[in-house]
Every structure is written in C-alpha cells, then in structure tokens.
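Handout, section 4.2: multi-component inputs.
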Amino acid sequence: MTAPNYGQTFAHMREGCLPSWQAYTRHAFVQGLGDGTLPRKAFLHYLVQDYVFLVHFSRAWSLGVVKSETLDEMKVCAATVDALVNHEMALHVKTCAAEGISEQQLFDAREEVENIAYTRYVLDAGLQGDFLDLMAALAPCVFGYGEIGLQLAQTTNADAPYAGWINTYADPEYQSVCATVGEMLDGAVARRLGDDPTASARWATLQDRFTTATDLEVRFWDMGLRGV
Amino acid sequence: MTAPNYGQTFAHMREGCLPSWQAYTRHAFVQGLGDGTLPRKAFLHYLVQDYVFLVHFSRAWSLGVVKSETLDEMKVCAATVDALVNHEMALHVKTCAAEGISEQQLFDAREEVENIAYTRYVLDAGLQGDFLDLMAALAPCVFGYGEIGLQLAQTTNADAPYAGWINTYADPEYQSVCATVGEMLDGAVARRLGDDPTASARWATLQDRFTTATDLEVRFWDMGLRGV
Amino acid sequence: MTAPNYGQTFAHMREGCLPSWQAYTRHAFVQGLGDGTLPRKAFLHYLVQDYVFLVHFSRAWSLGVVKSETLDEMKVCAATVDALVNHEMALHVKTCAAEGISEQQLFDAREEVENIAYTRYVLDAGLQGDFLDLMAALAPCVFGYGEIGLQLAQTTNADAPYAGWINTYADPEYQSVCATVGEMLDGAVARRLGDDPTASARWATLQDRFTTATDLEVRFWDMGLRGV
Amino acid sequence: MTAPNYGQTFAHMREGCLPSWQAYTRHAFVQGLGDGTLPRKAFLHYLVQDYVFLVHFSRAWSLGVVKSETLDEMKVCAATVDALVNHEMALHVKTCAAEGISEQQLFDAREEVENIAYTRYVLDAGLQGDFLDLMAALAPCVFGYGEIGLQLAQTTNADAPYAGWINTYADPEYQSVCATVGEMLDGAVARRLGDDPTASARWATLQDRFTTATDLEVRFWDMGLRGV
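Output:
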C-alpha cells in the first residue's frame, strides 16, 4: 500500500525506515485482524494492554501541549488528548465491558514489558528533547493505525470479526485526526528545521526516534500474539 | 465573603493563608472591576498579560494530565485544558479583537516579570513535585476567580463596564468547573495523604505552594494596576 | 542472605516484594557471575547494555536533583551522578576497551527492549510523581547491586572470572554509596510520609514502583542470558 | 569591554542583544561591586537571594544532564552541577556565616518575585524545549558573571570591599568553567543546527531565550539594589 497523505514529514520518515514500517503495518497480528483469523483471546489480551497504552499515550500528547510553541500546536495536541480520552478509549471500554472487564480493571492492568518500553520511551523523548522529538516518537502510532485501518477496510466485510476495530481507524473521523496532526507536524518541522528539513543537522536524530517507535510497535504486536 | 463550597482542601488552604487570600480577592484591581472605576487601559494591559498567562496555565493543566494517577484526575485535567483553550481564552480574544488586538499579537505579547514568575512557578511545582504539588499551585487561580466572580456579581449591574468579565467567572459553567476541580482535588488528597490530610507530613509544603501562588496573584493584580 | 543495612525504607520495600527480590538477587545470571560459569559472550552483551543503562540511570539521578526539596537530597543525588558518570561507568569502559569496544560504541549501542523499559520507566516515575516516586524506582538497582556484591564476595576468589565486577559492588566505596543513599531516602520518606510511612496512604503506590523496578531487573538479567 | 572568548555561540547571542547585555554587565549594582560603593546591606540581600538562585540553577543544570544527547554534554553539565553545589555556593555560605546567617536559613529564604521569575523561566525552558533551549537560558548567567569578573578585576585592589566576590568569578577556575561550557555549547549547537547556526530556523527562538534571561539578570540586579 502506498503511504496515505498525512503530510511530508510522515512521508519522509516512513520512507526512512521502510523495512521497519512494513514489519509494523503488515504484521501477522494485523493480518489476523483483517482476515478474522486472530484468536479472540489474543485480541482481548491486546485490547487490555492497548487501553493502558492509551492512558500513557494521552499523557504523552498532554506533554505535547506543555512543549508546544505555537497556538496551533497547543490546539492540535489538546484536541488529540480529547479524542483519545473521550473517543478512542471508549472502543476498548465498550468491547471489554461486553467481555465482563470493567474500565477500572483496564486501568489497573499489569503492563507487559513491551508496553512499558514503548510508552515510557515516548514520554522520555518529550522529557529529553523538544516538541519535534516528542512528535517523532508519537507519529508511528497515530499514522500507522490510520494506514492499517485504510488498508484492512479495503477487503473487510461489515460482519467480519474485527470490523469494529478496523472501522474505528478507517473512519473519516480518525483519518481526519491523522490529516490534522500531519499538517500540524509539517508546520512544526518547518518552524524549527526550515524549508529543507531532511537536510538539517537534526534529521537523523528525529528519524531515529520515529524508527525506534516503529520497532516498538512491532514488539507490541508480538506481545499481542503471545497472548494466545 | 465566606468561602464558596469548592471542597475541603480549598477550604483548608484558603484558611491557611487568609491574609494573602484577602489581599488577592479584595485587591484594588478587583474592586475597580466591580465598581467600574478600573481604567480601561489598565484592564486591557491586564487582559493581554492574562492571555499569555492562560497559555502557560493551559500548559500547566496539561502537565496535570501527565502527572495524573487515576482516570478521574486525567479526565478533569483534560477537560480543564479544553475549557481554558476553547472557552476562557475566547473572552480575551473577543474583547481584545474589539480593541484591534489580534490573537497572534496576544500570543506574542511580551510577558511582565510578575507574569513569568507566576506561570513558571506553577509549571516548576509540577516538574519538582507530584500531582498534589502542581494542584496546590494551580488552585488559587481557579478557585480565586470563582470566588471573585461570585462576590462581584452580587453588586454588579448587567450594564456595568466589566460585567462581561465578572459574568464569565460568576457563570454557572465556570462555577461548575470549580466544583468539579474541588471534588477531584479532595479525592487526589485523600488518595495520597489519607483521611486527615492537614495532619500529614506534607501539608506544610503543600500549603506553602498554595500561599506562594496566592501571593503571586496579588503581584499579578499589582502589575495590572501599573498598566495605567 | 539477610538484607544489608541500607536503612528502614529499603528493608520495608524489599520485604514487601520478597519473591521478586529473590528472583532478582538470586537470578541464574547472578549465580553465573559468582561461580564463573557465565559465558563471556553473555557478560559482554550485558556489559554493553548496562553501559547504556547507566547513561539513562545518570539522567534519572540528575532528575533527582531537579526534584529535591532539601539540600541533603540535592547533594546525595549530585554525588551519585558523579559516582556513576566518573566511576561506575569506568569499569564498563575499561572492560569493554580490553575487548576492542570503544566508549562511543557503548554510548551508541542499540538498546534491547528490556533496557528501554527499565530506564524509561524510572525516568517517567520522576516525571509523573515526586522525589519519592523516583527514588522508589531507582532504589532496587542501587541496593540490589550492593546486596549481590556482598553476597557473591563471600564465596569468590580474587582470580575468579568476574571478580572485578563483584569487587566493584562489594567494595567499601560502593557500599558507602548504598548507606548514604539509604540514609537520605529514610530522611526523604520521613519528611513526606511522617513517622509511620508504611501506614501512609501513599505506601502501596511507592511499593508498587519498587516492585515494578525489581521485576524489570529480573527481565534485565533474562536479557543478559539471552545474549549467549 | 570586548566579549571574552567563550565560544562562537556566546559571541553571536551576546551581539544579538547588546543593549540588554550592557544593561546587565554594566548595571549600577555591578559598578557598586567594583568601586566598593555598594552598601553592605544590599550586598547581603543579594547574596541571600543568589544562594536560593543557585539552588534552582543547580536544578536547571541537572536538568541539562537529563536532556543531554552526548557523553560530552552529560559530563560538562554534571561537572557544572558539582562546581555550583560544592564550590560557588560555598562563597555564599562562608560570607553569610560571617554575618550570622546559616546555610539552612539561606536555603529557606523567601524568594523575591524577580528571583522566582528568572530561575523558573530557565527550568521551564528545559521542560518546554530541548537541550539548546535550556542552554540558551542558562548561558547569560554563566558567561555574564565571567565577563563581569574579568572586567571588575582589572581595576580592583585585593583589599577592596567586594574583592572576594570579584575574584570568585575572575579566577582561572571559574574562567575555565566558562571556556568549557562555551566549547560544549558550540558543539551542541553544531550537532543540532549545523554549520551556519545563526541562519537556521530556530535561531530567533534561541536568541529570544538568551535575551529574556539577560533581561531577567537586569531585574535581578534591580532587586539587589532595592535591598538597600
């Protein structure tokens, strides 16, 4: 699949780690979501871990507000926190509730080591670096799920086992979040790295953050499969 | 005026620095807002500084999401960021626009030293301490404006010069924010300090943060008056 | 082995997660260090990862200075950063240099997921919580290595394969660091939690941080063994 | 006085705010230190505030370790923390002890609003931005005191009232700190902004941080004079 149009920065960084990106977006877990062969037990294990992931991901996007330097950056980050806390996490709560798992149980779930590694890496990118360092580490999750959603939606029926999950991310509302974040990110990059960002001194470091976060997405899917 | 009912923690901390609290809530600037004698120039000077204040205050409430340990703490902080960015700041934008000051000009305004001191003190309370340290430093602004709004609304006519400002804070919507924050704060205190928080080892430190932030509110009004 | 005397806080937290603590301090990797059966390849793999670990551990102790509230806390944290950067890491540099691995190669080593998880968890404990939250997450490494050093030194000859490693931690200089940190930690706990800290509302949360960090130590040894 | 040779970055930033820089380094307070006309009371007021300033300045340099991306950055920041905590602050402790003011009294001194503004602004520069943002805000104090020390030492006798203060900063040891920090800063800038840093997109923002911190130095001297 070609890259969705989430802006220039995403296109460059995705291209800069294509093997990792494909290992992430075409992972066996993803394929199992698409063709419905993923065991329910693995899905639920993933969903519980992903809920805790989103808690810390919301903390990281809030750190994005703390690190913003423009009004636009603040507003996009604040809106993303709202989307995560009040919408994306609701899918997890609803699906898990149907299986008898309460939201407090989700919040208190014991984190797998891959989960800790990913979320705390992102938060530390924000503590150690600036807004761009944090965004480069946040980007693979936001954009990757958008790309996976679009990709799986092309071949999934409405009554497929994981159609609800797929539609959450293929949905125009989520795609619109990706487009907005991508546009904001391009502006944030231009503001700090100028007109030719991939030629700037910091690009390799930022690419490394994007690549590391992408590799940690792969480990997250591995963890999901292990839950079978 | 008696303390509005914004919870036990607020009641204790307000009582713990009553002279400072009264210097803040009964300041000459506040009286000038109430009786309409505050020069327009001073009000506009204050409003521009307060806009920049709210930018950093939003950053501090976002840091509150980063530091939350419960779902309720996260949700209240995220909702407060939304209220600040999308509602409270709108009053400033609208009022200043009528005077020919654009939002970008507000965002870029040169901060007075009292403004820097207050906002950065609050942010550092969050960096240095935990969720309670941050909340103790955030509380005087949230609750004080609520109390001032109620107090001034008792004697203000709808056509008074600063009725718009007063109503923003006397409004049930803002009062509801105060009540929600107060309830969340009581829960956050109980969770960390137990059933008898004022007897706990940390109380003096937390009171000191509340008192320092209250004193910085006084300096902020002083700065407003200096703008004449 | 009974707990070394590194203060009351350590004694309580160690007791509060004894199975995890024993899984950590009596791990197969530790036994292999003691009886010399640990393959050299596994040791070097561990040493390279541990160097990067110490880089981030130094960052976390520096965050301890940022979060200190007393002069004593500042001084102990600053001295620990100095001990890490200028002494403990020197063992790694020297040992690795003998194997043809430069310090820059160590600094640039690709981190294993267990390494990322542990160091970033500790740093985030400091970002999310206060000084105690950070210290509870830092404690298992400092004190555990002291305990392991003492334990292995009882049965190790001076010419044993890993005597250099063992002596680094059994050494009076390192033991003195443990005692100093332990005493400072007891003071920090008394200041914030009072005279009966294990009965305080925050104790369970702090124990959880200590336990999680201990479990991540176990995973770190697992990772070391995997390097064979 | 021409700029001391503390590296290219300092030279550019100093030049970029020359009126502010001169208001800082040629302030009436500085002149009073040099010719001995500064009232003792003002000096002591300044010294007490400066002690608390150095506490938070040490916290900010420790945050520099947290934000470092190279071994050299870490080592220089850690060494600066050591120099501050164990050497520069000793002058204050010793001088104040001779006046009957204990170190604990210094640590607990009530901060003036200019003091809060300056130190928390620097700390927030580190929280909001990256290593360079923090360094740009830390630089005016480090380099300015070096320049002032050299400047005053040219015309001061050994028995002048404030010769001790002047010598602390004119001393080769302190000048060596300035040179080391300046060299590290040039490297940090090259790493992130490339070969022509003043032409980079971020330069204006970094200059603004340096200028703001310089202006806050001016306010700090104002505060010192007010202590008369």
